[in-house]
Design goal:
Elements lengths: L1 E6 L4 E8 L3 E9 L1 H5 L6 H23 L8 E7 L3 H18 L3 E5 H7 L11 E6 L4 E6 L5 E6 L5 H11 L6 H9 L22 H16 L6 H25 L5 E5 L6 H10 L4 E3 L10 H15 L16
Helix pairs in contact: 2-3, 4-10, 5-6, 5-7, 6-8, 8-9
Length: about 325
């Protein structure tokens, strides 16, 4: 089965062609990061307009790089949500037009399912498993008993981890996005600033608002007292506390369930300390983290997820397929 997938949930315009849920024939991604960096974050209307400009060219390039014709496509897949509604609708309307014009079935795919299935590109998923989903908008622990069987064990009760990275980077004057730059600076510093112990009543729930507020207030107090903030040490201190919170909850979920595999998914999966701590912590079971190119938003992961969604349910969507800014997994 050859799947053409389209992803436009935020600020990446992407199209991919994949075969049998594993072999990536093409994965074209156009990022708008440089454009939104000026604003310190993603501007929804700007993102939507950029998708409109690029979407047709990206689809054509994906087909060309995959060396396939329209007649070879068995299924069209598109991100249905969650995401920026205007951005989502650009991809959905492009996908519906393509599917309708060529008489190809279409499926809407959950964005988080795509991130999880990015691991399937290089690692065979072994069930049951625990998936840690970490990004600018999501921090969740999900249990999977089999393909396309999702059980959300816990989620963030306030800020997502990626959001906390971005806000702290902004206060430190490090620009957008904050995750990569804080990760880089943390390697040069020492975790010398005191950080709070993060506690939640929910055994699998996360919370980052307290840690974020503590760091921002600490930076402001140091500056008000005329002291220079050691940026590399602040980055190292925050990152250590943020990542240990993920590791603690993830280890508990693995220990308290019958999971035989642990996955990390989402943009924050590219974080070097998280990858290091996962390798150190989960030595007793299989674990998987996608390569960097499949951590951030891309259509290849959506094509893989769509293959398993379609073969599992054997059901396509109608042309009334719509986008949703919020969507339950």
């Amino acid at each position: 089965m050859i799947v053409l997938a389209i992803e436009s949930s935020c600020d990446e315009t992407s199209a991919s062609v994949a075969k049998d849920g594993r072999e990536i024939l093409s994965n074209v991604v156009f990022s708008q990061i440089d454009l939104h960096e000026t604003f310190g974050g993603v501007v929804p209307e700007v993102a939507s307009r950029e998708h409109v400009k690029r979407i047709t060219v990206i689809i054509e390039k994906a087909l060309e790089e995959a060396d396939v014709s329209v007649e070879d496509i068995d299924l069209v897949a598109v991100t249905q949500g969650p995401g920026l509604i205007g951005a989502l609708l650009v991809g959905i309307n492009a996908a519906k037009a393509f599917a309708f014009a060529h008489g190809i079935p279409i499926v809407g795919v959950h964005h988080i399912a795509g991130h999880i299935y990015a691991n399937q590109i290089q690692h065979e998923l072994r069930f049951p498993l625990i998936a840690l989903v970490v990004s600018g908008g999501h921090t969740e622990l999900i249990r999977m008993q089999g393909h396309y069987q999702f059980e959300v064990l816990g989620h963030t009760h306030d800020d997502a981890i990626g959001e906390a990275y971005d806000k702290i980077a902004r206060v430190l004057g490090l620009g957008y996005p904050g995750g990569p730059v804080i990760d880089k600076l943390a390697k040069e510093g020492q975790p010398s600033y005191d950080m709070p112990n993060i506690r939640t009543e929910d055994p699998y729930g996360f919370s980052y608002s307290g840690l974020k507020s503590h760091v921002i207030n600490l930076i402001h107090r140091e500056r008000q007292r005329g002291r220079s903030v050691q940026t590399v040490d602040m980055a190292a201190s925050f990152q250590k506390a943020a990542i240990e919170h993920l590791i603690e909850k993830s280890r508990r979920a693995v220990d308290n369930t019958d999971a035989g595999m642990f996955l990390v998914a989402g943009g924050v999966a590219a974080n070097s300390l998280l990858r290091e701590r996962v390798a150190q912590t989960f030595t007793d079971i299989s674990y998987a983290i996608p390569d960097f190119e499949y951590c951030t938003d891309n259509a290849a992961m959506m094509a893989v997820a769509a293959y398993y969604q379609y073969t599992h349910a054997r059901q396509s969507d109608s042309m009334s397929l719509n986008g949703y800014s919020r969507l339950e997994l």
